[in-house]
Amino acid sequence: MKNILIIDDNEEILKIFKQLLLNEGYRVSTANNGAIGMILFMRRNFDLVITGLNMPEMNGLDVIRRINNIIKIPTILMSSNYLPVGPEDTKVMGVNVVIAKTIDDYAFCELVKNCLEDKVSECKVF
Hints:
The chain is of the alpha/beta class. Helices cover about 40% and strands about 20% of the residues. The chain has a single domain, classed as Response regulator (Rossmann fold, 3-Layer(aba) Sandwich). Helix 2 runs parallel beside helix 3.
């Protein structure tokens, strides 16, 4: 069973995305800010990290940089705001995928599945 960490300061997003992934059969841990997310990340083995961009304590890009300095695992960056980024920007940021928090449930679950199966060969923006 794959282990996923979701980090975001929006409790409703954490609840919704966690339930979607639990329904798909994944083990899911959540953190409501980047600092707590990094503590969880250091204590457990995760196969995928999904993090919000703008959070207190430590933003999503800082979380991703720190994770990438430890181990290379798939990462998804999510934002409630429009992100004017392209695939080349995601490589610089060190993420596999950038999504809007408004992504529909099916697309979100498929994207997670593809990241875990290493089917996201290029960095993508959704």
